[in-house]
Design a protein that fits this description.
Blueprint lengths: L10 H11 L5 H14 L13 H12 L4 H8 L3 H4 L4 H23 L5 H18 L1 H16 L6 H21 L3 H15 L1 H15 L3 H17 L6 E4 L4 H10 L12 E6 L2 H14 L1 E2 L5 E2 L12 E6 L5 E8 H9 L24 H12 L3 H6 L1 H9 L2 E5 L5 E5 L4 H8 L1 H6 E6 L2 E3 L11 E5 L17 H22 L5
Parallel strand pairs: 2-6
Antiparallel strand pairs: 1-2, 3-5, 4-5, 5-6, 7-8, 9-10, 9-11
Helix pairs in contact: 1-2, 1-3, 2-4, 3-4, 3-8, 4-6, 4-8, 6-7, 6-8, 7-8, 7-16, 8-10, 9-10, 10-11, 11-13, 19-21
Bound molecules: manganese (II) ion.
Manganese (II) ion (MN) binds next to loops.
């Protein structure tokens, strides 16, 4: 990522990149947005002394790398116009229409955060979640914007460098991770790393360099060998590639392993991309029959996806000449999801089709839940008090549970059958009397696990939830429904006791 300077970045390159994944995209319209932004920012300079327009252009290029459709690219080009120039949101609405103007308005609102310290931190989190719940595309633009600012931090004062980098590391990267945007998370972290922990950065960079030194030839040979191995075994459409490890994630791994590089097994890492899930497992078997796997290093994130939706098979094997090599095996669709996460719902594949159909409503449930909590907390002091709670909520792991029809319900860890029932519908929650988990009868307070299939049994004549459920439900939604019902029941009971009451 370093060295990707803005000087080689042009509007022609941007249009070419977009046309490659979306042949129907209107290059003229993208160029018109570029010219509009360029004229609006005329005379403004970046801290580097370069014309300002290189910044929105670089942000748009970051969005194009995520294969996002033209309207998001256009909004990216225009993202600083209302904030920094004479042109207004109205001008953008007239020139580029409602959808683009709404995204630019969203990013402008998100940008007006002038707090410092802890207040700024919370305010930032709050605005990010509200924005995400309203239109997650705005958050993609924010990431693209932030990434370019991070990659050009060298020209600004050290104190500001540190603050921006720290904020990126502590807020933006974890959010990118929760949204499953692995590539964006890695780039944000690596760009921030050297400003937040300069010494550690130098140390890890050296370790990574020396660990890979002289191995390139080995890796190249292994890629060809693996490709032949899988193709000869009858797998079609195999793609084998080398994988550079992100420095910050290597650093985190080193910290976990007592800073001992000998315990980091995946300095050499290959990725295998195949056509379908069956081929993933076939490839794993072929690899294992050729090279001996390390004990305890086989991970099946296809059957058991990570809470952020990451899916892949991992294995670490003793390869040629005793080298330890990690393989990640996945389909093309999984790969797109692992790299781009929620952004993949908007992304195009190379044939110009939307890879996964998506709308604003594809935003995960936990985002809405967080946004709701934050909307209710108008009081600043309350923010401060609940900071810890919020942090836990952001990072708290989620589980994915299935309905009998195969719909996926996203719940916090340790959720129960009752949480599941309320997540489907309030009426289902209020009238549930029992449950089946993986086709076996289960108690309503049963704690669910990732991948469970849950069938809720209801009794329509049931008056409402059992107040005792409040003691075990995990989700905010279930808790408030159970309490609400108990309260209204007590209220009507008290009313009934009062003289003249009904
Ligand atoms: Mn910007």
């Amino acid at each position: 990522m370093e060295g990707a300077t803005s000087k080689t970045q042009t509007i022609e390159a941007l249009c070419g990149l977009v046309a490659a994944y979306d042949p129907k995209a209107d290059s003229k319209e993208i160029t018109r947005a570029y010219e509009f932004a360029k004229a609006a920012h005329e005379g403004q300079k970046r801290a580097s002394g370069e014309p300002y327009i290189i910044h929105p252009l670089a942000a748009a290029l970051n969005l194009a790398e995520m294969r996002l459709p033209a309207p998001i690219i256009i909004a990216g080009l225009l993202h600083d116009v209302p904030e920094d120039t004479q042109k207004t949101i109205e001008d953008i609405r007239n020139e580029f229409g409602e959808d683009v103007a709404d995204m630019v308005a969203g990013i402008t609102k998100l940008g007006k955060i002038k707090y410092r310290g802890i207040e700024r931190y919370i305010e930032n989190l709050r605005k990010m979640f509200l924005t995400m719940a309203a239109d997650v595309r705005v958050v993609f633009i924010k990431f693209a914007d932030r990434l370019h600012n991070l990659e050009t931090l060298e020209n600004i004062p050290p104190k500001k460098q540190f603050r921006i980098a720290l904020e990126s590391l502590e807020i933006f990267a974890p959010i990118a991770n929760r949204l499953g945007m692995g590539e964006m998370k890695g780039r944000l972290e690596d760009a921030s790393f050297k400003y937040v922990y300069p010494k550690e950065y130098a140390w890890v960079k050296e370790i990574s360099r020396s660990g890979r030194e002289g191995k390139q030839e080995y890796v190249d040979k292994l890629i060809v060998q693996t490709d032949h191995l899988l193709t000869d075994a009858g797998l079609g459409n195999v793609l084998v590639q080398g994988r550079a490890k992100h420095l910050y994630s290597l650093y985190r791994k080193l910290l976990k392993n007592e800073r001992n590089i000998a315990r980091i097994y995946d300095l050499i890492a290959l990725r295998i991309i195949v056509d379908n899930v069956a081929d993933c497992y076939a490839a794993l078997g072929i690899i294992h029959s050729k090279w001996t796997p390390l004990k305890g290093r086989i991970k099946d994130y296809i059957a058991q996806p990570k809470p952020n939706g990451y899916r892949s098979l991992h294995t670490t094997v003793f390869c040629e000449d005793g080298e330890i090599v990690e393989f990640q095996i996945r389909t093309k669709e999984m790969h797109a999801m692992n790299e781009f996460g929620i952004a993949a719902h908007w992304a195009y594949d190379e044939h110009g089709k939307i890879a996964l159909v998506g709308t604003k409503s594809r935003t995960p449930e936990w985002v809405h839940e967080l946004a709701d909590i934050q909307k209710e907390m108008e009081d600043k002091k309350l923010y401060l008090q609940s900071l810890e709670e919020l942090k836990i909520d952001v990072f708290r792991d989620r589980i994915f549970v299935f309905t009998p029809k195969g719909d996926v319900i996203d719940l916090p860890e340790d959720s129960t059958c009752v949480d599941f029932a309320y997540a489907i519908h309030t009426d289902i929650g209020n009238t549930c009397t029992g449950a089946k988990v993986n086709e076996e009868v289960a108690q309503l307070n049963r704690v669910l696990k990732n991948g469970d299939m849950v069938d809720i049994l209801v009794d329509k004549s049931r008056k409402g939830p059992n107040p005792d459920w409040a003691s075990f439900v995990k989700t905010r939604q279930a808790k408030s429904k159970v309490k609400q019902f108990a309260k209204s029941r007590i209220a009507s009971w008290i009313k009934g006791m009062m003289p003249g009451g009904k």
